[in-house]
Amino acid sequence: MTAVEEARQRFRHAVSTGSYAEAQSCLDQYTRAVSAGLETSGPDDPAAADMVTAALELLRWADRAVRSGRAHDAGRLAQLVLARPYRPMPPQPAASFQLDA
To answer: How confident is the model at residue 99 (pLDDT cuts 50, 70, 90)?
Structure first.
């Protein structure tokens, strides 16, 4: 397995599990691996074009997955807020004096 494929798998896994901080780190590694792969290939190399196409498809997939996850989380949060019972009023402090009528 090449460095690009390993980085791609780690990035996919991080996005799939919602580990966005890890996904950022994996994306940086993936970017470096793709850049290194492109530097070793020639401008007319079909493998380079395939690598760029695969990278763009992965980024489109990640964008959709992250947006979908965020929308799902926002929906769950909205349900939690709606299901939350009203908070009782805090107890009123007792008067420190009593009026006699």
So the answer is: low
Residue 7's CB: how many other CB atoms inside 10 A? Answer: 20
List, for residues 7-55, the tens digit of each pLDDT value: 999 999 999 999 999 999 999 999 999 999 999 887 788 989 999 999 9
Using a cut of 0.85, tell me whether the model's pTM lies above it: no
DSSP characters for 58-72? HHHHHHHHHHHHHHH
The number of CA neighbours under 13 Å toward the Cβ of 37 is 22
Straight-line distance from the first to the last Cα atom of the chain, in angstroms, rounded to the nearest whole number: 90
Q: Phi and psi dihedrals of 74, rounded to 5?
A: -65, -40
Cα separation of 57 and 51, whole Å?
10
Q: Give the Cα separation of 57 and 30 in Å (integer).
A: 13
